[in-house]
Amino acid sequence: MTDIAERHAAITTTAPNARWHGAAFEARLRRRYAAERRFRLAGLAAVALAALVLVLLLGSIAGKGWTAFQQTQILLEIDFDAAEIDPQGTRDPAVLAKANTMKLIRDTLAAQFPEATTRAERRQLSDLLSSGAPFELNRMLVADPSLVGSKQAVWLTASANVDQFIKGHIPRDVPAAERKVNDLQIRAIDALTAKGALTKAFNTTLFTAGDSRYPEQAGIGGAIVGSLLTLVVCLGLSVPIGVAAAVYLEEFAPKNRWTDVIEVNINNLAAVPSIIFGLLGLAVFLNVFGMPRSAPLVGGFVLALMTLPVIIIASRVAMKAVPPSIREAALGIGASRLQVVLHHVLPLAMPGILTGIIIGTARALGETAPLLMIGMIAFIVDIPQGFTDSATVLPVQIFMWADSPERAFVERTSAAILVLLGFLILMNGLAVFLRKKFERRW
């Protein structure tokens, strides 16, 4: 008995001390702490690398695009000669809208730069201004017919080449054959700059105009309106259908093989490439139902199909997070199952549902591929006025500008990307705000 007791004491005291104390234990402990430090450093390095790549990406886009928010303008003393603009003196808006204001610009430039004697040189001076400058004067005359017969100092939009030259994207210290601004135009630009008749102003055209083949006249206004109209249709379809489907599957549907199949297919649809939805829209909405091509109505239908699985899954997760005790308490005081869902479950799950809706909307806002398949890549000059008008959206506008070889479209592409990123950040920030504001912890 004495030997057994001594052996038991050795096992319960000496053996644990030998395992958890001493040089071997300290070495194992150091290795474990070293492994934890390496893992922590690897995580920090991964986060730092991701942040660095993000900063480089955004910095590159911002560095190329911030100049697009400014547009060069030229000040000219325009003589609105009544004999040239309105020889009949009727001041009819239809006549003023078609007046030959280009001749007024050429006469002003010829008087200001008399060294330009040949026809080619005078045309080169006219190229300092945008091809839309005469239309700017026409719009001024229509808005204020009293300008006829007067002489006014007017700021007009410069051409894209002059704008790029002023912004430093076209160097002056290269041979004339290698730059798009010749020596005569550079001398005119220097003279205008010295007189204070050349400046850079905020580019309102970028936000108010539609697409154009001339960079200085191109804007994302039409694409923004097209995106908004498309999202209205998308949300009008996907939100009520998606939330209703989630409510039925989570609260009312029997748990059997068929509902399992539906749930699996919904989860699979959330991972389907977006271009597949575009092919579906092309085959069904355009070819079968004959809906208008390139219209926000069709784009909204396609994006609604793509957004539905995201909203259904997010809504089901939000409702599943509501504690069962809430349902049981409501049923215990006599509420019907529909009243339980409408009065208790949905209000408590609303933050998660709204978050899913906003995230799905943000995904739809940034999609390009499905809309290309239904023709929303068309060249749209006019801003759409309705859901069936031809339109494009902001991502597609970026895609089309990125394919343009002109340097002026490079900065406008980057500027449009910044605007799109701003919308996406705003929507994701709104989702975070709603979740933080309405979220309840159980």
Describe the structure.
With 442 residues, the protein is mainly alpha-helical. It is 66% helix and 5% strand. It is extended and about 95 Å long. It starts with a helix and ends with a helix. 32% of the residues are buried. Residues 10-15 have low confidence and may be disordered.
CATH class of the largest domain: Mainly Alpha
Name given to the CATH architecture of the largest domain: Orthogonal Bundle
For the termini, the CA-CA separation is: 58 Å
> Into which percent range does the helicity of residues fall?
55-70%
Rg for CA atoms: 33 Å
Mean pLDDT: 87
CATH H level, superfamily name of the largest domain: MetI-like
How many structural domains does the protein architecture include? 3
How many strands appear in the DSSP assignment?
A: 3
Helix count?
A: 19
What structural class do helix, strand and pairing data support?
mainly alpha
Q: Bin the strand percentage.
A: under 5%
Descriptive key words:
442 residues; mainly alpha; MetI-like fold; 3 domains; three-stranded antiparallel β-sheet; 19 helices; extended
List the helices and strands and how they pair.
Blueprint: H1 2-20, H2 23-65, E1 70-79, H3 82-85, H4 93-97, H5 101-112, H6 119-126, H7 133-143, E2 151-157, H8 160-166, H9 183-194, E3 198-202, H10 205-208, H11 221-252, H12 257-269, H13 274-286, H14 296-320, H15 324-332, H16 337-365, H17 369-373, H18 394-402, H19 407-438
Antiparallel strand pairs: 1-2, 1-3
Helix pairs in contact: 2-19, 5-6, 11-14, 11-16, 11-18, 13-14, 14-16, 15-16, 16-19, 18-19
